[in-house]
Amino acid sequence: MKRTILASFSIVALLLLGQHVSAQTIKLGTLAPQNSPYYDILRDLAESWAEISGGKIRFRIYPVGVAGDDPDMVRKMRIGQLDAALLSGSGLTEIAPEIKALQLPMMFANNDEWDHVRTQMAPRYERILEAKGFMTVIWGDAGWVYLFAQKPVVRLEDLKPLRFFVWAGDPGIVQGWRDLGFHPVPLTSGEIHSGLHSGLIHAYATMPLASLSFQWFALANHMTDLKWTPLVGALVITEQKWKAIPDEIKPQLLRSARIASERFITKIRSHNEEAVRLMKEHGLVVHPVPPDIRAEWEARFRANYPVILGNAVPQDLVVEVERLRDAFRKNAQTK
After folding, report:
1. What is the DSSP letter of 324?
2. Which residues, in sequence order, are bridge partners of residue 60?
3. What is the C-alpha to C-alpha distance for residues 290 and 314, in angstroms, rounded to an integer?
4. Which tens digits make up the pLDDT trace of 307-324?
5. Nearest to residue 267, comparing CAs of 138, 155, 168, 174?
6. What are the residues facing 229 on neighbouring strands?
7. Which pLDDT belongs to residue 11?
């Protein structure tokens, strides 16, 4: 009898130990504020993964930049302080500079051609990120980037007197703007509000939803109605953490993530449109850009692509992005 009881306890102990070992807490960083659409998607994904894994996979989300800016989160993933992060272009290029080929200003004109190119290029970029130790869980974008300033900006020359925010840590972007005769100020996103308040910067480029969520527009209430670029975004997880997840549930987790990605894109785009409407109700002035002036912006940006890209981005990536975009445009014109 004693042996039976002891054996039973041993089995229970081993089962409990096995559950403990297989349980995974994914420490995830994001700049998204709580109660924002970005955060809601992550929360929903966490609930889905917990259900699929029978409660053995849990997310611990660090919102609103608690874990640092995008480049900070990448560094923390590399040393094991974070397991995953929802990154925008600045963080993704910290891992793989090749992402810049998708983030060139004025490369895309609308969501349709951007969606087509991103979808076609995703497998190649996933291989690049995987080779650097990161698994891509979700692809998407955070919306189109627009310029917000304390004074009206329609022509490029309107921007020249203004000091404006650029992401710290990307010397190619900084030098590219300087070569065009502008005054970029490299900062973290957490310094934008204080920079606008103190006069360190007069302008910044971001998505409308971010401008509303962080209340930056209250200090820079002029928006240039010119789509600079869709801000590419991805949820990545370290290879080490991904390998620790049981293989048998990974396909279900990725299917769940794809569904979340589709919802994310649809939701973010509608919220960005709503954000513009709400900001206009509270003093935002939107300045239209005539087609001829838009062409001037595009020509100036394109001339500076080599400086922005630097030596870390293979030219064939840019050629492929442009080929896919041009083929899509040609096909759209024939319909």
Report:
1. H
2. 27
3. 34
4. 888 888 999 999 999 999
5. 138
6. 145
7. 38
Q: Where are the domains of the chain?
A: 2-334
222-238 vs 84-88, strand pairing mode: antiparallel
Q: Say if CB 155 and CB 293 are below 8 A apart.
A: yes
Interacting residues of 110 by C-beta distance below 8 A, sequence separation 6+: 227
Closest CA to 20 of 46, 55, 52: 55
Number of neighbours of residue 198 by Cβ within 10 angstroms: 9
- Give, rounded to a whole angstrom, the gap between the first and last alpha carbons of the chain: 81
Q: Classify residue 171 as exposed, middle or buried by CB count within 10 Å of its CB (0-12, 13-18, 19+).
A: exposed
Alpha-carbon distance of 237 to 46, in angstroms, equals 13
Helix (H, G, I), strand (E, B) or coil at 220: coil
Class of domain 2-334: alpha beta
The number of CA neighbours under 13 Å toward the Cβ of 196 is 23
> Does residue 153 sit in helix, strand or coil?
coil
Average pLDDT estimate for 287-301 = 96
- Per DSSP, 227 falls in state E
CA 277 to CA 287: how far, in whole Å?
14
